[in-house]
Amino acid sequence: MRIHTGERPFTCHQCDKTFRGESAFKKHLTVHIKEKPHSCSVCEKSFSLLYYLYQHEKIHTGVREYMCFECEKTFITANQLKLHQIIHTGEKPYNCSHCDKRFSQSSHLKRHEKIHRREKRHTCDQCGKSFSFKNQLKIHMKIHAVEKPHHHSLKSR
């Protein structure tokens, strides 16, 4: 029934991701475990579960077995296809409780809601400036990468 209502009662308190079912929620929790014994032989990225490694390895093989029948775009996972298909329906089932904005994906709503909460969990370790989103911090860090140290030379006359 949760599929039809959009209800997602299980929330990860580490990253705010939500889930319809307990089994998917429990599987997700393993991504926060520091121990990641399963490594990709191509890029050496490691994973807590073998399942996640298998999903990741599809990136390297280029196999995209899920196709959208509307536009023929292909995807690596069924979930990616499902998320994509919403663009064709125009459906936006997730609405912000603070304003009238609506979103097609729950992750987009969660990202948007941080604006209202003014959460700034991503802090620059060089200047202390904080950002709501990790990608904002990455963009900001480029400023420091191009900054040149100021050298003041004293001229004696």
TrEMBL record:
Membrane-spanning parts: none
The protein's name: Zinc finger protein 235
Pfam family, one: zf-C2H2
GO annotations of cellular component type: nucleus
Keywords per UniProt: DNA-binding, Metal-binding, Nucleus, Repeat, Zinc, Zinc-finger
Family named by the database record: Belongs to the krueppel C2H2-type zinc-finger protein family.
Residue span, C2H2-type domain: 10-37, 38-65, 66-93, 94-121, 122-149
Protein localization: Nucleus
Taxonomy of the source species: Eukaryota, Metazoa, Chordata, Craniata, Vertebrata
Organism superkingdom: Eukaryota
GO molecular function: DNA-binding transcription factor activity, RNA polymerase II-specific; RNA polymerase II transcription regulatory region sequence-specific DNA binding; zinc ion binding
Species of provenance: Anabarilius grahami (Kanglang fish)
